[in-house]
Write a structure and sequence with these properties.
By secondary structure, the chain is an alpha/beta fold. It is built from 8 helices and 8 strands.
Amino acid sequence: MNPLAIILLNETDWDGFVQAVRFLARQGAPPDRVLWRMANQGDRDLFGATRAVAVGELPATTPLRLPASFVDLARLAFLHKSRARFDLLYRTVWRIGQDRRCWRNPLDCDRLQLEHMSRLVRREMHRMKAFVRFRRLVDAEGNERHVAWFEPQHLIVEAVAPFFVERFGARPWAILTPRVSVAWDGDALRFAPEAKRKDAPPPDAGEALWLTYYQSIFNPARLKIQAMKQGMPVRYWANLPEAAVIGALETGGPARA
């Protein structure tokens, strides 16, 4: 069997990936003969000698019978930044089809890797919810919008966006990231290409108020730097207004305590 390149719409094309996995499994395509490529990255041109099929060209197939625990992990692991996730996920589906007992083994290498990837994604989703900081913008007509800059390590923006709709649904907002941007206008979510940090608004008066509040609730007696860095890794500090005062609070903490 010649290698078959499956062309997904983009890196977060879960529906297309599911459709392709169903087709490949029904066709009995071994994992080592399948290549995963993205339509929006021009990968199709790299494989002139390989048969390439876009997910939209695949025929519809019936769902596969897979353990619910695998599907739950797969949805999260699919949002990991590693391109190896496609091979890992399809290989696991293939192995489950050959022998379902492999998934019941808690020490199975593929299962352990999927669990690790899903934990990282779940943690990043939590951090996006916790560390996004909006800044208020008002246009010439007085219309207000809140805009934030965030740099996620994994492909979580589309998955986390509904959380912000539920939390801030009454006001328009936008989150800019290096991979994709998302905006809510009060009626619908809209996704756009990547943005740059300079596209985000500068500090505003509300940010100064937040810093005053943050410093006022600081308790030096409970200062635990390592624990703080585990919960709020340093890589996020550049986009957190309160990070500008952490050094001063840390230095003066012992004396205040």
